[in-house]
Design brief:
The structure holds 2 protein chains of 2 kinds. Chain A is about 55% helix and about 5% strand. The longest helix of chain A has about 35 residues. A 7-stranded mixed β-sheet of chain A has the order 4-3-2-5-9-7-10, with helices on both faces. In chain A, strands 6-11-8 form a 3-stranded mixed β-sheet. A two-stranded parallel ribbon of chain A has the order 1-12. Chain A is α/β, with parallel strands linked by helices. Chain A is built from 22 helices and 12 strands. In chain A, helix 3 links the parallel strand 2 and strand 3. Chain B contains 4 helices and 4 strands, in the order E-E-H-E-H-E-H-H. Chain B starts with a strand and ends with a helix. Classes of the chains: A alpha/beta, B alpha/beta.
């Protein structure tokens, strides 16, 4: 008997509600334009431009953010039930894991086995642990670890884990589950119908966490994203892949992998050949005194580079061009090897007692065998390869991607959020995706603030990595709507610096009376209030029946984290620095780690002092703008309300006692109780390794 | 899926495939071709003339063998493409890397 934790059934947006939402979005678009243009033309306090202009930029940012949100929910797609489930599809269920507790993965494996639609279940164990292998055998599920090709090569975290498994399995469709995500038995029956459309590559279902306490102090649930936002993106055929609880079409992934292989290969070979001239000149110069006929070899290699370049220009296939190039490089290397060997021979004959005849004979024999010469003149073994830059050239002008374990990498490896990058590439190739708004798997959220912060940081960093490396606005193959849907998510992760403006402006006003606007006049209220009110109304209507309050708080309250996400992803993409982590506290559990949110606490203190100062200034007669003070007091109140979530999160104590952790000897029932906070942390931390490995 | 390996001149081998090269058969086909390379026949010409259908997993297998061959200092070429093979090569743009040779003979000439 399978008993999974009950998940909520959030109300769907009705046709009437959607109409009202659209009406309000349209109204607010006009009100927003009216307000922002008034702000630009008629309200800036130039005397205090240093705060007036940053605030105006922040307001413009928020207005654009609203526009993108409006565009998203404008096309909100209610799918209802999927088309009838096709029979006879082959499905592989992948459970990705990396050092999570074995018993936790066992529960997931059992839940996966209990899925009704015929399928094969595999545990993809990146931790390569004997205990996990034993568990897989006991439960009767497949067990996959990295092949030997991955040794000493970049592992690409979860993307690499999935890429490895893709080449060891054969299902037409793949259900991907994180180690902690317990699927419902009907998960495939409810989603496979969409694949009747041969262009559908992905069906994503929500992620929902069953260990989150009432009130969700850490803001773990994302009911606005796994709901109206994804439904809106779906309306533009841009539903995101979110890494787990999704079904993918193998053919789509493999085609994507091959297309990317061709693209990257072409780029790499072209780049290497373009850089080769300078590189070979340098190599020739720095080995001028070498005894080997190295100079001649380099000249020959230069000619080979020329020919390869011409070949590419004339449109010859890369296989042919690189084969010729490698062949020529090999003949050059053979000359060097032969020279070396003849010298060895000369020196040996000088040694008394060595039979020169006999030696010559055996050397000739060796060389006639071909394989010996090949072994000595290979891509990485030839004397040429001793010059590192030349070795790199020889490796780069080839089709085998020597630096990667597999030439074909269907899951994108450009970001720590491989899921988003992969979906975007699928969309660019013309595939369709589906968001099915029904909770069909339940999982574990982090239970402590630090881990939760780390997870958010990773998502933000990954999203921004994609933005910097493959900007959707410039990516070929995407529709306008798809470009904007990807960009909308990236845009929202840029909020950090702008949030600071919203925090600082009222503090400055209450302390000094310096306002970013000309006057807190009737004109000001007339322009601002309708815009603000309708704005809130839109969010209220979109999120109706879903707990969205925490999300709203965290979007302002985590401003230091969002700033760090920007600086670290810029540092990573453009300067090759590691992505970095949230400050970690040595003691992992219990106690309150104020350091995790010290800047928010400092700002809160400043806000409170500003309130006191502002009131005193007014009461004591130092300042006479009552309306302005009231506006700013209200503003500060809003800021404090948003930031207060940090205190709740900091003082939140995970369940002290680990609930009963299932044990190996138990009957295979699935009366799942939330495992320990330790398990939740292990789950989140195993996801985080992506940030570490991308460094 | 049937597979036969014939030795050819110049130390090359002709791999004749017959049937479907798809997600079901790709793994085994790749395995056997890699074994051929490891066995010393490093230059392969894969005769695709009797392959009814190739999907992207099949292409993935061919690229995998190409990698193994190159790492061993060898090479791989495909010959006798069917219409379906041509279209999936174009679809994935793989024709920029691997252009099929019209005949096995033509593919072999480059190896001499």
């Amino acid at each position: 008997m399978v008993t999974l934790p009950a998940a909520p059934n959030y109300p769907q947006v009705s046709v009437a509600r959607h109409a009202a939402i659209r009406l309000l979005i349209a109204a607010n678009l006009l009100l927003g334009i009216w307000y922002i243009s008034w702000r630009y033309t008629d309200s800036i306090n130039w005397a205090a431009w240093w705060i007036a202009l940053p605030l105006l930029v922040a307001e413009t940012y928020s207005f654009l953010d609203f526009c993108l949100f409006g565009l998203t929910v404008w096309r909100l797609k209610r799918r209802g039930a999927a088309p009838p489930t096709p029979e006879h599809l082959t499905v592989d269920v992948f459970i990705t894991c990396y050092n999570e507790p074995v018993e936790l993965v066992r529960e997931t494996a059992r839940a996966a086995l209990a899925i009704r639609y015929p399928h094969r279940t595999y545990v993809l164990d990146d931790g390569d642990s004997p205990a996990m292998r034993a568990m897989a055998e006991e439960e009767g599920v497949g067990y996959i670890t990295r092949s030997s090709a991955w040794q000493r090569r970049s592992r690409h975290a979860k993307a690499g884990n999935l890429n490895n498994a893709l080449f060891q399995t054969t299902g037409e469709l793949l259900l991907i589950l994180d180690a902690d995500q317990l699927p419902r038995p009907e998960i495939l029956d409810r989603t496979l119908g969409y694949f009747r459309d041969p262009d559908v590559a992905l069906v994503q279902t929500p992620q929902w966490f069953y260990n989150v306490p009432p009130g969700d102090p850490l803001g773990s649930q994302a009911p606005l994203f796994y709901g109206p936002i994804q439904q809106g993106k779906d309306g533009w055929n841009a539903a995101f892949f979110c890494g787990s609880n999704a079904v993918l079409r193998r053919e789509a992934l493999m085609r994507l992998g091959i297309t990317e292989y061709v693209r990257e290969l072409g780029e790499r070979v072209r780049r290497a050949l373009d850089a080769a001239d300078a590189l070979l000149r340098e190599a020739a110069a720095s080995h001028r005194d070498s005894e080997l006929p190295l100079q001649e070899a380099i000249v020959a290699l230069q000619a080979a580079v020329q020919r390869a370049r011409q070949g590419l220009r004339s449109g010859a296939p890369i296989q042919e061009v690189t084969w010729k190039f490698q062949d020529e490089a090999r003949s050059v290397s053979r000359l060097l090897v032969a020279f070396d060997l003849s010298r060895i021979h000369a020196e040996l004959t000088d040694i008394p007692g060595v039979d020169a005849e006999d030696l010559q004979g055996s050397l000739d024999e060796l060389l006639a065998e071909g394989s010996t010469l090949d072994a000595l003149a290979g891509r990485t073994t030839s004397p040429l390869a001793a010059i590192e830059t030349v070795r790199q050239l020889l490796l780069a002008v080839d089709v085998d991607r020597d630096d990667e374990a597999q030439p074909v990498m269907p899951m994108a490896t450009i970001s720590v959020t491989e899921d988003m990058a992969t979906a975007m590439r699928l969309h660019a190739l013309g595939w369709r995706t589906v968001y099915h708004d029904e909770i069909l798997a339940v999982g574990l959220a982090p239970e402590d603030f630090r881990t939760s912060l780390q997870q958010r940081l990773r998502w933000a960093q990954g999203t921004l990595q994609v933005m910097f490396r493959e900007n959707p606005l410039l990516k070929r193959g995407l529709s306008i709507g798809q470009r904007l849907m990807y960009f909308a998510t990236m845009w929202s992760y840029l909020s950090g610096p702008f949030m600071v403006c919203y925090l600082v402006a009222p503090i400055i006003y209450l302390f000094t009376g310096i306002a970013p606007v000309d006057a807190y006049s009737t004109d000001f209220f007339v322009h601002l209030l309708p815009y603000l009110v309708i704005n809130q109304l839109v969010f209220l209507l979109v999120g109706w029946g879903r707990p969205t309050w925490r999300g709203q708080q965290y979007s302002l309250a985590l401003f230091p984290l969002w700033i760090k996400a920007i600086t670290s992803s810029v540092g990573n993409v453009y300067f090759g620095k590691p992505l970095g982590f949230v400050v970690t506290s040595k003691t992992r559990q219990g106690g309150v780690h104020w350091r995790l949110a010290w800047s928010q606490l400092a700002v809160m203190l400043l806000l409170v002092v500003a309130v006191v100062v502002g009131i005193l200034r007014l009461v004591l007669g130092y300042f006479d703008d009552t309306a302005g003070t009231l506006v700013n007091l209200f503003w500060v109140g809003y800021d404090l309300l948003m930031l207060s979530v940090c205190i709740e999160a900091l003082t939140y104590q995970p369940r002290p006692e680990a609930a009963e952790v299932p044990t190996a000897g138990r009957t295979p029932s699935l009366n799942v109780v939330p495992p320990s906070p330790e398990a939740a942390r292990a789950v989140a931390e195993s996801h985080d390794r992506a940030s570490a490995e991308s460094a | 899926m049937e597979m036969r390996v014939e030795a050819a001149r110049g130390g090359a081998a002709i791999v004749r495939l017959d049937g479907r090269l798809d997600l079901v058969t790709a793994g085994e086909a790749k395995q056997r071709m890699v074994e051929t390379v490891e066995g010393g026949q490093k230059r392969l010409v894969v005769d695709m003339g009797s392959v009814d259908f190739v999907d992207s997993s099949g292409l993935g297998a061919i690229i995998g063998v190409l990698k193994a061959a190159r790492q061993a200092g060898g090479d791989l070429r495909i010959a006798c493409p069917t219409g379906q093979l041509r279209s999936i090569l174009e679809l994935t743009m793989l024709d920029r890397v691997l252009r099929p040779y019209e005949t096995v003979e033509e593919a072999l000439t480059g190896y001499e």
